[in-house]
Amino acid sequence: MKTNMTVSVDTDLKQKVQLLAKKSGTNLSTLVNMYFAHVVNTGQCSFVLDADAWRQSLELDQSISFDDFSQLLED
How do residues 43-64 score in pLDDT, each as one tens digit? Predict the structure, then answer.
């Protein structure tokens, strides 16, 4: 069974990821499904959460930090 999901994503970032997916012979939907399956199967993200780099890329002036991945899952 499949379900639809709505996610807000920066337009430029989405276009870049779509292009990379196309070059890899897939599409954005398949790429997201592959990533979700990876997270569920391994219990890990395959990237490092770097709040400083994220803040700089968004040109924000406040820092966000997490002690570990589980903090991101808390409400």
Answer: 887 766 566 665 666 655 444 4
Distance, CA of 18 to CA of 7 (rounded, Å): 14
- Give dist(CA 65, CA 42) in Å, integer: 23
For the chain, how big is the Rg over CA atoms in Å? 15
Max alpha carbon distance in the chain (Å)? 42
Full DSSP string of 23-55: HTT--HHHHHHHHHHHHHHHSS-SS---HHHHH
pLDDT range class, residue 6, cuts 50, 70, 90: very high
d(CA 65, CA 1): 36
